[in-house]
Specification:
This is Lipid A deacylase LpxR family protein. The protein has 5 helices and 12 strands. With 331 residues, the protein is mostly beta strands. The longest helix has 18 residues. The relative contact order is 0.16.
Amino acid sequence: MKQLLTPLVLPLVLLPVASSSAQDIDYFSFSLENDVLFQEDGGYTDGVVFSWGYRDQATLDENNLPRWIDWLADKAPLERDGRRYNIDYGFGQGMQTAIDITQEVPPEGDAPYAGLLLWQVGLTSYEENIADHAKLSIGIVGPASGAEQTQKFIHELIDSDKPEGWDGQLENELVFRVEGSRNWRLQSVAFDNGTEFDVIGGAGAGVGNLRSDVGAGISVRWGQGLAQSFPLSSLIPTRAGDPLAPSVGGWQVYAKLAGSWVANEIFIDGNTFKDSASVDIIHGQAYATIGGAVELGQWVLGMTVVRGTDRYETQREATRFGSFNITYEFD
């Protein structure tokens, strides 16, 4: 396992850190997505991400980006007069299991067992009421993700049911996804008590063997520091984490609605180039999200609950999970 993981993980994790050694990291964040909030342990069951990054940059260039990412950034229409930039990196693991993890052979119609190990870089270009996002995700699905070992270790630690169906997980496959989106701050109102209310709309698209889709969404927020955190808003929930960590400048609560048309998703369609377990995808999908975040000194704590429509035709349990995020912001 170590021989499989090390060549993939170390270059991806260390390269951005080494290239930005002249800069101080602005934040470090840990995010956990899990279905335990709903007393479930099947389907999309867990996602963990560590993220870090740089905020309020004047430019995107080789001074704050690895050369190959700077080259990619030049191809995206992000740099414009009067804009500021955020750079975010993330590294995480996600997993999907059968509904009943105690069965060695999951029943026909359940989505396949799958583990994902993923590295991401996200670039944000923003002004007062517009924020453009570009993100690249690279990783591996299959035994080399280490998801089987992670779940078995955690379940042994908490004396929970042993997952038995991992022998049928997806085969090793390198995966990628390139995506872009734009958010608009459509309306904002400041109240006399120091709080604000705003409405954000957005649209985006992504392509890759990990997932390809187009989508749009809208959110309403109430709280403090909404203008400061607007560039970081993500309207469509993502599994296995998102490196755009919250920075709220106080506190906020929010609600979001989003819809997408999904062309392909490896967690549902199975391996791209090999025969594997799969189910029939539902292309039209929608999500509702409620959540909040609060800043306590240099710490930011966030909690989100996501409820989605079915992702595939034979789905037997609802698409729902909770997400917890803790961020430390450096001076």
